[in-house]
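Protein Record: Sequence and Backbone Structure Tokens
======================================================
Tokens: labelled as protein backbone structure tokens, with as many entries as the chain has residues.
Question of interest: how does this chain fold, as expressed in backbone structure tokens?

___
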Amino acid sequence: MSVQSHLIMIWLLCITLNVEGQVVHDAEFYILKMQNGERWDQEDAELEQRLQQLRQKYGQPPNIVFLLWDDTAFGAVGFPALQKNFGYSTPNLNQMASEGINFTRMYSEPSCTPTRAAALTGRLPVRYGMGEVGMPHEFSGLRAEEVTIAEVLSQAGYTTGFFGKGHLGDIEESYLHNQGFDEALFTPMNQITSLFNPQANVANAVLGMFPEIYPPDPYRLDSPGLIPAGWVMNIEGKKGQPGREWCGTSNECFAKFDPEAEQRTLAFIRRSAEQKKPFFVAYWPNLLNFMAMYNPKRSVAGLMVADAFPAMDNFVGVLMQELKSLGLAENTLFVAMADNGPMVHSPPAGWGMLPMLYRGGKGDFTEGGVRVPAFAWWPGTIEAGQTAGDIIHITDLYTTFARLGGATDAIPTDRVVDGLDQTALFLNGDTYGRRDYVFIYTGKELGATVKGRYKRHWLGAGEVAGSGMPEAYYDIYMDPREESPQLVPLIYTQGQFNHMVARHRLFKRKYPDVASGKGIPYTGLANARPETQAIGERVRAVISEMPFTVEDYLEYQIPGADKVGDWGD
């Protein structure tokens, strides 16, 4: 069969599946399905029987708890022996890993916002304009047309809650209680807001953000100018109701946020148990307070990240014990993972962002940026003591959660869903994965492609790329740090990698990328401060003096904006 015929067959298969109302995946899935479909069908029949038995036993589908935290290298959590060498410990997360599955090839996106968007939608964030990291004022966010896992599971009778760091935009449609969650307490932005206070300005952690603490500047013509006046740190809300600003913008409010999110998570679980309703709850802590002062130190290392781990780790222990006490543990899947690699590019002194085995970190498409610790715990269903070498991507959680919840019919079929159903991997363990590839984007650009043990870099391929012999091919088993490009893999994989991308881009032509949602920041808040309301008023006043509309202004795609990322992107 010619390459062209092969592509056409894949294309027709996709169109047929879409017409039949089935979920559309990327091209590589159909290649794997053609070769493994019969075995997968048999596995699925057995899995469905097991899931049905569980539903009959407990009277409902399984509960799902999803913990996502920041900036941690693979190996830094879940491996006690390594932790001994770095002066800290996470005993509860380590216990979780030892009592369930420790995934060794979990891929995230390179930075916070893209990973969080991918987790909620099951789609590569480049497809809907969420591939860049936002900062206030962003004027954009997760668009209303995306169908989140909360919306999918809600249609199957789940109650849904979100408590923690959202970082999915500052516009009303992106608020988590407007994205399918029954209740939410979330941050529109990231941990950098812990520095957006006069104390940080006094300490020179930020400069010029609070003009009131400086002598009058006789040269200042624009107020507020570059300062994001009226920004909001935390928002709470319930589905179908206006949001409310929670607490304020001080560092004290930042410090109160994670404990509040923990209490709301536990309360949500208890209420759901009393109501005998299946629940999906996301607890995504801020974890890092840039102004935190640990005295006494919480770890032998005494580094910021090491000292921040105990609070989150303690809550993991509390959460597992609470699930056991409520009699829910054996009908609850608990997944915990990091959102991307550590901040290794010009990190703050004393933070201890460990690069570990793989090269690179936050913002990179190398393994160090996207290979993260991840564990799944489900007593009685997931066999303890497992280490899985299968490739899994964060988008796969979307489709897997939907399958476990009996909600696959609610997954949209009018777009590419990148997440694959990995129920077989979760329930059967190592070697039962259904993915051997990953496309890794940095902003809007395809940075690298992984296929099994091999990886090709599309960006930064070296000065000789034009000769047809690019320095871009890596064997991850032999060279996990991607430091020594290999000639031999290039010879027999170059054409295959090229056609992987061709198929991927053909699908993108059929299902084009769209922009993120756009709007005035922080609307829809019942208790909005005057300075927050003034954001929209100021925009409309400014635009009235210019030869374009507010809509033109909001929709304009800023050239190079996707190159300005989060901590080294």
Remarks:
- The longest helix spans residues 27-58.
- The radius of gyration is 24 Å.
- Confidence is low (pLDDT under 50) at residues 564-569.
- The first strand starts at residue 63 and ends at 69.
